[in-house]
Amino acid sequence: MRVTEDGTATPPVPGSPLADMVLERLTAAYGPAADPERAVAMRAYMKDVAPFLGLTTPVRRALSRTVVEGLPRPDEADCTAVALRCWELPEREYQYFAVDYLRRHVRHCSSGFLPVARHLVTTVPWWDTVDPLAAHVVGALVAADRSLTAEMDEWIGDDDMWLARTALLHQLRYKERTDTARLFDHCLRHSGHRDFFVRKAIGWCLREYARTDPDAVRAFLAREQGRFAPLSVREALRNIGAR
Length: 243
Known about the structure:
- Helices cover 61% and strands 2% of the residues.
- It is mostly helical.
């Protein structure tokens, strides 16, 4: 098992004939469709986080359908292998494929997949991969195994802001199943955070929960008045107002 610079172990890539087939098809489909000129613009838009092939979203998704067509349903080892191997490829579109693949098949993964998700969140991190991983992969894992909430309580206090953002956003799709006390506590833990992405995530998760219980969000912000950045408050109340 490899160890990263911060001392975190990198999950091993399991053997997977299915992943072998997926990666072979994937690189054969994506590579010839690359648009170098568009890739430059996409890389600049994403603040140079990674190189791009230059595939637009409609083109990429159409190609992805051909990649997975006729393939069997993956198990957890297959999902792990596909995701980690895509993350090892330099171009961002391969990571987008992995995120979409996990969103589709996360129900076949156990709580043991969470360390893999953590690696994906913290490796070449930016909002374009972190946010869907938080809401659709990590959130799904925690919903299926509530003991993982203890991990979210650790992530919210981590120095890595992308782990904190993931903890804030993991309940984004929970609606009535939201653990409101945990949501509000996580927001308060970072109410004074200086980074834009954390302040934005606070507003986003509160705004999303406000679709379910607007009065609870208004009351929370009124009770904690002055603790949150204007950006967080503005985002949280965007659709419901302060009254």
